[in-house]
Design brief:
The longest helix has 19 residues, at 255-273. 36% of the residues lie in helices and 16% in strands. The protein is built from 13 helices and eleven strands. The model has no long low-confidence stretch (mean pLDDT 96). The termini are far apart. The chain is of the alpha/beta class. A hairpin with a 6-residue loop joins strand 8 (278-281) and strand 9 (288-293). The structure holds pyridoxal-5'-phosphate (PLP). Pyridoxal-5'-phosphate is lined by residues 76-78, 103, 147, 151, 176, 178, 203, 205-206, 211, 216.
Length: 343
């Protein structure tokens, strides 16, 4: 890895961050707060939230097995994705490399930040090699995006490929583990000490059932987390989200849901094999799967008519005639299956 100083955009390296009232004073003893121009009434909503989400991070640290200083929290993983560009990529100079097909936000954020987005096409098994990924890089490549389990293909990317890429690349490798709760593959989020150029993304939106509250996280070495905190909006995770996330983390675990959903996944996959409308299903390590249909567009329209919405991936490279189907509740899955049996 190149020194962080060299990887960062020079303006970010020099940046003196905004210092909020809640940043400058932090301590438990005070009880009169006249420092932030807040309204004294309407507690607790009158107060600005903790800009560094200290209490929430302590809970996440415990749950995820990662020290709090190695955790960044944002308004969905999408904030962390955008921040990576804003911290590391000089507009119209630097570039990033990503597998193709993959999660659409990496490219959208590249476009917004005016950063060249280079694609490395997966093979027929939706796999790739480190050689191919590194072959797409040049000296202005700052980031490599690897989503595993990958969206929309559903499969894990080969571990050796990921490790090899991290070890051989001199910039930052981001491994997006949004769906890792549904997979048995070893996790990368606890390995950021071993790999100083690794950033791992997690989210409350999938296994945790909290897409509505918008809470995403990044795990990385402290120096990278510190830069992300410097660049983010001061109060990027609101009070309601912090409160609700803490409640969920204290009171629940996702293991029950995960086993329910993965069991349903196996049942639905089996049922798809018997559908005349389905030509092939792809192996999955996520809470969704990709199915090659006889005619994805007309089946998609037919399902919409019946009030059942799936994701049409027909136009995505390597996904011709494919639908991406989220595993729902038993009842929802049965509605989908009976509609498809009548097609
Ligand atoms: C759904 C998803 C996310 C989650 O994004 P949030 O902004 O946290 O809701 C992240 N990465 C991938 C690959 C996803 O599919």
């Amino acid at each position: 890895m190149r020194p962080l100083k060299e990887l960062l955009r020079p303006n970010i390296e020099r940046l003196k961050p905004y210092s909020s009232a809640r940043n400058e004073y932090s301590g438990k003893e005070a009880h009169v707060f006249l420092d932030a121009n807040e309204n004294p009434y309407n507690a607790p909503y009158n107060r600005y939230p903790d800009p560094l989400q200290t209490e929430l991070k302590a809970l996440i640290a415990e749950k995820k097995g990662v020290p709090a200083e190695n955790i960044f929290l944002g308004n969905g993983s999408d904030e962390a994705i955008d921040l990576m560009y804003r911290c590391f990529c000089r507009p119209s100079i630097d570039n990033v490399v990503a597998i193709e097909p993959t999660y659409g936000m990496y490219e959208v954020c590249a476009d917004i930040n005016d950063v060249e987005y280079r694609r490395v096409l997966l093979d027929d098994n939706f796999q790739v090699s480190a050689d191919k990924i590194l072959g797409a890089c040049n000296r202005n490549t700052k980031l490599i995006w690897i989503c595993s389990p990958n969206n929309p293909t559903g499969n894990n990317i080969n571990q050796e490929c990921i490790i090899d890429t991290i070890k051989r690349f001199n910039g930052i490798v981001i491994v997006d583990e949004a769906y890792s709760d549904f997979s048995d593959a070893p996790l990368f989020r606890t390995r950021t000490t071993e790999f100083p150029n690794l950033v791992v993304l997690n989210t409350m939106s999938k296994a945790w059932g909290c897409a509505a509250i918008r809470l995403g996280m990044a795990f990385a070495q402290k120096d990278i987390i510190d830069v992300m905190n410097k660049v983010k909006y001061p109060y990027n995770v609101n009070f309601l989200t912090q409160q609700h996330a803490m409640q969920e983390l204290r009171n629940f675990d996702v293991l029950g849901w995960v086993s329910l959903i993965t069991q349903e996944r196996e049942r639905v996959l089996k049922a798809f094999l018997d559908l005349k409308a389905c030509e092939k299903i792809y192996p999955t390590d996520a809470n969704f799967f990709l199915a090659k249909m006889t005619d994805a567009q007309s089946i998609y329209n037919y399902l919409v008519d019946k009030g059942v919405i799936v994701r049409n991936r027909n136009k995505v490279r390597l996904c011709g005639n494919c639908l991406r189907i989220t595993v729902g509740s038993k009842g929802e899955n049965n509605e989908l299956l009976s509609a498809l049996r009548q097609f």
